[in-house]
Amino acid sequence: MITVYGYSSSGNCHKLRLLLGHLGRQPDRDFRWIEIDSPHGATRTPEFLSKNPNGKVPMIELDDGRVMVESNAILAWLADDTPDSRRRFFAGDAWQRAQTLSWMFFEQYSHEPYIAVARFICGWTPLDSPRRADLPRLRERGHQALAVMERHLATSEWFSSAGYGIADIALFGYTHCAGDGGIALDAYPAIRGWLERVRAQPGFVPMPPVAAENLALIAQSE
Amino acid sequence: MITVYGYSSSGNCHKLRLLLGHLGRQPDRDFRWIEIDSPHGATRTPEFLSKNPNGKVPMIELDDGRVMVESNAILAWLADDTPDSRRRFFAGDAWQRAQTLSWMFFEQYSHEPYIAVARFICGWTPLDSPRRADLPRLRERGHQALAVMERHLATSEWFSSAGYGIADIALFGYTHCAGDGGIALDAYPAIRGWLERVRAQPGFVPMPPVAAENLALIAQSE
After folding, report:
1. What's the domain count of chain A?
2. Residue A216 sits in which domain range?
3. How far does A26 lie from chain B, in Å, by closest CA?
């Protein structure tokens, strides 16, 4: 059984739950989810750091003790470590698979550090946090990332020419909740259409509800 | 022939030159290198943005017009799109290949945004740039990334258990020149030993010399 260490309101962690859903893997039968309260320091304990010195979730652990970190690498492993009929989530030839990775590196470098961080600041820091001064810059860069996605989706159904897969899952992670960070999707019709296509995929699992205290902070954020 | 658009002093771009060297690919025979002066806006021209809307190098273009961006995705393609004897640079089973990707995502998320950006600020911004106020924080986070690498290298020769490959190349990109950003490697003997092992690999290509104006800024940086 795979053990997933994750924080349910994290888009990076939700990516794994989403792919596991598409793969038909059942909680408590095929994997166990251990909730890690990362906003309150649970990834900084000596025990956690002994498994992931970089102090981040998600992390997976196999029964033999092997550990893997980095959400997008875990997606690649889950998609490849399945019967061929399921390998479609990381499908294609060497070029198509590398294009899938290209979008996943885009997500971690040009998208997540702005869209996810803006959301974190809005919902997981006090209303008087000095970090809120970063929001205008983060939102500007977040919109730049969304514009790159919108342009691709104007002529493409998915982020890989081989079909729906782990690049879409990686980008769905924080795009679907960009509004929590004050980054509205109104100007991106192609992205909104793509989000609906993702939600219509068999086995789709929505992100669990965000806690009331975080929702309240999001609602009060400017 | 592959066309590589790159800025020679960029560690992200140098990764490609390094793997091409290991693969025995010769400049002007197997690939052409087009120098892009990214610090002076050459990735923001309409022509460049029409090929990469994200406005970054490196980028590769094939003779049929296909384009790929994101240094680490290009490494994955170059390593996979070669005869099996050469596929050793992205070798192993699904787990080992995903672990290779894990280190490459670590590089882009937890290493490059600090170590490469500190170097850029030191060598490519004026001495009175307000961005220099970020240097202490960037250096602190850079050292955190180096500590994670040091811990891995204390018991491992390379970043993939399948041997020297694209994870090492990705991390070499900016680790070898971390000192340019004021991030010394003195406290990391395992990293320094690994850098020497990388330099001893057949086909290793050193980064071309940094321009005098940038070296002068680096020398004057605090």
Report:
1. 2
2. 91-220
3. 21
